[in-house]
Design goal:
This is Anti-sigma regulatory factor (Ser/Thr protein kinase). By secondary structure, the protein is α+β, with helices and mostly antiparallel strands. It has helices at residues 7-22, 29-47, 78-81, 95-102, 183-199, 205-215, 307-317; strands spanning 2-3, 51-57, 63-69, 105-111, 114-122, 133-137, 161-166, 173-179, 222-229, 233-239, 243-247, 253-254, 273-276, 282-286, 325-331.
């Protein structure tokens, strides 16, 4: 949700409490979610340009995450900003200090181009192992914000992009779906593709694509990417305009591309690519709702970010807001 006025703080609080309730988080967790939303949204309203707050379940379940993103001016002294009582706006200075105390995890990156703050809450007994970043956003209506800006509650309620992350005997497996078009029919196609994936995500990737193709024959069809992280290598198979980007010590570079086609209409010859697992590398999947040139400019490349911040970074700074968008960033 866009945070461009103090009234958005109340909306953020309401939405965070509702999400925690929908996820059946027990005890005081819904109120903690509300406090986190209040602090993050208030900071955006007071200090940031083009602020937005993303609220969603954790990609692997077991809790929720709140991520604040903006376009600057950045935090001059991050260490001081995380201390209780710190303020540059003449307030009591609870802010990020309160967020750090209440959240189970807090991840922050700030530079003059903007700040990203991610806070999580997990249910008792749950733990966010090997955190990954993921986000899925619907296309903006014609009168919404320009690319790079945040969008408000006028967003389409339906999204034709979707993702799922499942644990399998051979390692975590990711499905990323970009159904053709927008709106309810696209969302139904994406949901169908994920339902087939969920029937048995441990199947060989090419078999999963074949089953999704059969299930989507009476739908709009979709581009689909599948990624599995094994002990020593990753497997990747895709059809259509979905992208894999490898992010390591050097500049990001594209992985193997999926052949042209539409799952549900024209299925090309399927190939499962094998990629060596490189310690410290992040494998990033995204649909064409993210500008495909994001990692080629500026010359210095994007900032080095953990996977949990990379997804909202792309969503906030490199969106094509007229299209649905989905991103999954998973560490190797």
């Amino acid at each position: 949700m866009r945070v461009d006025h103090v009234s958005a703080v109340h909306l953020a609080v309401t939405e965070a409490r509702a999400l925690a309730g929908a996820l059946r988080l027990p005890g005081a967790l819904p109120e903690k979610a509300a406090v986190l939303a209040s602090e993050l949204a208030t900071n955006l309203d007071k200090h940031a340009r083009a602020g937005v707050l993303y609220l969603q379940p954790l990609p692997r379940g077991g809790g929720l995450e709140l991520t604040a993103a903006d376009h600057g001016p950045g935090i001059a002294d991050v260490r001081a900003a995380l201390a209780d009582g710190f303020s540059t706006a003449g307030t009591l200075g609870s802010g990020l200090g309160a967020v750090r105390r209440i959240a189970d995890t807090l991840t922050l990156h700030s530079d003059p181009d903007g700040t990203l703050v991610r806070a999580t809450l997990t249910a008792p007994g749950a733990r966010e192992s090997e955190p990954l970043g993921a986000i899925c956003l619907p296309a903006a209506p014609d009168d919404a914000a320009e690319p790079g800006g945040a969008r408000g509650e006028r967003e389409e309620p339906c999204c034709g992009d979707a993702f799922a992350v499942r644990e399998t005997p051979d390692g975590p497996t990711v499905a990323l779906v970009d159904a053709l078009g927008h709106g309810p029919e696209a969302q139904r196609a994406a949901e169908t593709a994920l339902a087939v994936f969920d029937e048995d995500p441990s199947l060989p990737l090419t078999e999963l694509l074949t089953r999704q193709h059969r299930a989507l024959r009476r739908s709009r069809g979709a581009a689909v990417a599948l990624l599995r992280l094994g002990a020593e290598e990753a497997a990747f198979a895709a059809v259509g305009n979905v992208r894999l980007v490898r992010i390591g010590l050097g500049r990001p570079h594209g992985g193997p591309a999926g052949p042209p086609g539409i799952v549900g209409y024209t299925l090309p010859r399927l190939v499962a690519h094998r990629l060596p697992r490189v310690p410290g590398e992040t494998l990033l999947l995204h649909t064409d709702g993210i500008d495909p040139g994001w990692h080629r400019a500026p010359a210095a490349g994007p900032p080095r970010l953990p996977p949990t911040l990379l997804a909202p970074f792309l969503a906030h700074r490199h969106r094509r807001v007229r299209d649905d968008a989905a991103v999954v960033a998973i560490p190797t």
